Amino acid sequence: MLKTAISQSQLREWQQEINDISAEFRLTITFNQLNTRDHRFEALCISQSTPERVCQQHKISLLQYINADLEKHTQDSTTPEVDIHHQLIRSKEGHIIAALSFSAVNHDLDKLGLFQPLSAIQVRIADMLSNAICVYVNSSDLDIKSDTGISHAVDVQAFINAFDEHIWIKDLHGIYIGCNKSVERAWRKTTEQIVGKSDFDLFDKRTADSFVEGDKLAIEAGTTVVVSECEEVDLHFNKVWLETIKAPIHDDQGQPIGVIGMTRNIAKHKEAQEQLVLAANVFQNAVEGVVITDSDGNITEINQAFTDITGYSREEVMGKNPSILSSGRHPKSFFERLWNTLLVQGKWHGEIWNRRKHGAIFPQAITISAVFDKQNIIQYYVAVFADISVQKQNEEKLKNLAYFDPLTQLPNRMQFMSLVEQELSHSNRAKKQLAIIFLDIDFFKHINDSLGHVIGDEILVELAKRLSYALSDYDVLARLSGDEFVVMLPSISGTDSVTSSVDRLRSVFERPFILDNAQSVRLTASMGVAIYPSDGDDHDSLLRNADAAMHRAKLDGRNNYAFYTESMTKQAVAQLKLQTALHQAMANDDFYLVYQPKLTLKDNTTCGFEALIRWHDPVLGDISPGEFIPLAEKIGLIWGIGLWVLKTACLQGVEWLTQGKSFERISVNVASLQLNRSDFVDQVRLILLETGLPAKHLELEVTESCMMHDPDAIIRDLKLLGAMGIALSIDDFGTGYSSLNYLKKLPIDKLKIDQSFVRDIPHDSNNTAIAKAVIALGHALNLQIIAEGVETQAQADFLRENGCDLAQGYLYSKPQLPSALEAFLPLVSEHKA
Ligand SMILES: Nc1nc2c(ncn2[C@@H]2O[C@H](COP(=O)(O)O[C@H]3[C@@H](O)[C@H](n4cnc5c(=O)[nH]c(N)nc54)O[C@@H]3COP(=O)(O)O)[C@@H](O)[C@H]2O)c(=O)[nH]1
Question: Is 731's C-beta closer than 6 angstroms to any atom of ligand 1?
């Protein structure tokens, strides 16, 4: 049995040894003074990296605990017993730094007043059991030496026996002077068989040589050295990793007097090391980018994949916030939700668009986890992300395949149907019409058969482009299959607008299709139109009916179109003919003006003429302005026609003036669309200048509906016209947008009672009432009142009797060519006379 009193220097040496042993656990275990008198014992366990004030805390808490325990044992224990106690060591912030377990063994309870031995302290850190350090305090030694306060007898044999590690001591000659129980078990020899022997007595020569070599190493180094590390099988045939460390023992003068050695199983440590290496390998070689930040979000580590994906090196991002990758594509609320989830659930998974170092934005699938300590305080955030650019592109491609025609890139049937369905619900709510046009190329099979599918595809691609250009941004063009295309026209105002679209679609076939080989091909198409809600109220029936209409167009000789309802088809055909003719009319000089005299009711003298347009088409014959003016407004021809009318009427006025004819004013009708043009006033001014008609001989008739668009601008323009000397009258008063509010603001001179109110007076009580009211209202506003459509003397009498100022109508004259109006145009000299 190795039993010796330990001096302060030995205690220090011993301390050094223990420090070395426990170094890998990052602990310092300090044995200080032992004083039984006041029951103080300081066995201090502190983390090496812990600041001093924290060490102090450990000391206090540990001592308090131990002292309390000692008191308990001296007071009431009667039988030997072992109590295991545990103590958590916390830092000032409350984090657990270490866990101490120690047992107080009550041996000699009959010897009253003796200090009960404290047997062992086991130190744990983060679940790793460190070496058991057994301090067996010999109570009698303590008691005897307590007076001097220097000597502490410690049973070193018991101390080293408490270790599972093999511990042995050799003198400078290599003779064993002590060992522990573990050595006995491992070497299958008793201490007696070991002590006094050399390695050459105990082992084969090769082994002995290596052991002696290790001793020399330690002595020469003057400090602890690891002399071997090897994998072996223990007594129970378990695989163990053995590490042997040796340290020189010095006397008080610092001279080496022997070697202390220890072999221990470092399997767990090795395992942990391997795990660490493995984890480090996984971390570094992962395909996913990994970024670790501290609790403040500053980057503390990244892996290679992070650099590969983002382009940022480790040095560039260490200590920075991951927001350096921000793409700016997500709103603030996105990150607020992310952080909420992360803090509440400890994890967030989703997709983020980030920016690479060189600027490119890329999508990543990312999982961010918070790493908590035992106090549930966040220590780190770990984000693992994958670049999903390629995945996104593939998804996009798949989506494209699902919803778009790969040849023309137009929506396919599925996408078209879904868009129609959406638009139908909107049309239903807004009470609007919607048209579906089914378009099929005539004889396209012949193209494929004769020129091949590649050329056929080329034509389809070109056709898709042309059709797209022919439509507005709101219309939807799709390719259903082969040579079948379909168009949705949302919010149509009637068949006219459909006809216009059909016409534009047909026009794309007017140009030949020039192929790669410079060959040109001419095509035609047949179209069918179905209109919601009259021809179907869901996408299926509308498409079916448009298809049926298209087939009828084919039967009618192809290069044609048909509405699902026959009457609509006729109407549309007529409309298209008219439209085409109207485009030609201006160039062909097919328009002319007629003039209808306006008379003063009081004395039946002529006060002016209304210019009214007429159109004679060589094929279609005479077409009423009531029919073509609204069409000209729809297809945008009214501006040109309007200016022509104004100029022609002014020239006529100048001609009459030149001939010495007397008239007050020539009035010209102005459509709302004309008045809504910002350059209308300038154009009128220009025409007056060009023609030379004095403004005082011109009157413009505008309708109430002109006020619907931008009343302030219209009022401003009318004032400008009035200021030029042009008279202004409101045509068709009472039939439309009769806002008295605007009426009083308008710089007008006359109100024209619409002929629908003149008809049937004086018999129709309603019309007579309206006519009287308009006269009264106009006079209240200081306006002259003119009645149109006066056909009978009774109407004229009624109007005169009720204060109407002027009249025009068949009673006096139909609108006529100037040559027929001589009777209404007295010479100035006659007029004066
Ligand atoms: N923007 C322009 N609009 C024009 C122009 N010329 C005509 N119009 C508008 O077209 C609508 C139809 O006009 P029209 O067929 O010429 O009919 C006018 C007269 O001919 C007709 N009228 C006149 N007297 C009688 C009558 O006693 N009985 C009867 N049944 N019809 C009669 O009324 C029309 C008068 O039109 P208005 O005074 O403008 O209301 C019509 O809306 C014209 O305005 C043009 O150059 N530009």
Answer: yes
Residues whose CB falls within 8 Å of the CB of residue 106, separated by 6 or more in sequence, listed in order: 73, 77, 79, 80, 81, 82, 83, 116, 117
Among 582, 788, 806, 812, the mutation site with the greatest number of ligand 1 atoms within 8 A of its Cβ is 788
In CATH terms, the fold of domain 404-584 is Alpha-Beta Plaits (3.30.70)
Whether ligand 1 lies within 6 angstroms of the CB of 557 is answered as no
Q: Rounded distance, CA 717 to CA 747, Å?
A: 10
What are the backbone dihedrals phi and psi of residue 795, each rounded to the nearest 5 degrees, phi first? -65, -45
Closest CA to 726 of 661, 805, 806, 646: 646
CB of 791 closer than 6 A to ligand 1? yes
Q: Token pair 């030995």 is at which residue?
A: 10
619 vs 628: CA distance, rounded Å: 15
Rounded to whole angstroms, the Cα distance separating 174 from 212 reads: 7
| pLDDT tens-place string over residues 57-115 | 344 334 444 444 444 444 444 444 444 444 454 555 554 444 444 444 344 434 333 23
Cα 824 to ligand 1 centre (Å): 19
Q: Where residue 29 falls among pLDDT bands split at 50, 70, 90?
A: very low
Query: Can you tell me the distance from the alpha carbon of 423 to that of 491, in angstroms, rounded to the nearest whole number?
Result: 9
For residues 18-45, average pLDDT: 39
- In 352-492, which residue ranges form alpha helices assigned H by DSSP? 389-403, 413-430, 444-451, 453-470
Q: Report whether residue 596 contacts ligand 1, using a CB cutoff of 6 Å.
A: yes
State the closest ligand 1 atom to the C-alpha of 754, by its place in the atom list counted from 1: 40
> Parallel, antiparallel, or unpaired for β 433-441 and 525-532?
antiparallel
Residue spans per domain, the chain? 1-163, 165-285, 288-392, 404-584, 591-756+820-832
Strand partners, 259: 170, 248
Q: Do domains 165-285 and 288-392 have the same CATH topology?
A: yes
- The domain 591-756+820-832 belongs to what CATH superfamily? EAL domain (3.20.20.450)
At 205-217, the pLDDT tens digits run 998 999 999 999 9
> How much is the ipTM here?
0.94
% residues pLDDT > 90 (the chain): 48
CA neighbor of 11 nearest in space, from 132, 214, 156: 156
Q: Is 80 exceeded by the pLDDT of residue 130?
A: no
pTM of the full structure: 0.46
pLDDT at 616: 94
Report CA(405)–ligand 1 centroid distance (Å): 52
8 Å CB contact between 690 and 647: yes
Class assignment of domain 165-285? Answer: alpha beta
Which residue has 């006020």 as its token pair? 707
CA distance 826 to 833: 10
State the DSSP H helix or E strand holding residue 715, giving kind and residue range, or none if neither: helix 711-724
Confidence of residue 488 (pLDDT cuts 50, 70, 90): very high
Q: What's the rounded mean pLDDT across residues 561-565?
A: 89
Distance 712 CA to ligand 1 centre (A): 27
Spatial CA neighbour of 307 closest among 295, 281, 329, 325: 325
39 CA to centre of own chain: 71
pLDDT, mean of residues 293-302: 93
Neighbour order of strands in the sheet with 239-250: 176-179, 166-171, 256-265, 239-250, 225-233
Q: How far does residue 53's CA lie from ligand 1's centre (Å)?
A: 106
C-alpha 808 to ligand 1 mean position (Å): 11
User: Where residue 736 falls among pLDDT bands split at 50, 70, 90?
Assistant: low
* CATH topology for the 288-392 domain: Beta-Lactamase (3.30.450)
Element (H, E) at 240: strand 239-250
For the CA of 612, the nearest atom of ligand 1: 6
For atom 26 of ligand 1, the residue with the nearest CA is 789
Per-residue model confidence (pLDDT) at position 164 = 82
Query: What distance in Å separates the CA atoms of residue 546 and residue 538, rounded to the nearest whole number?
Result: 12
Q: What CA–CA distance (Å, rounded) separates 28 from 58?
A: 12
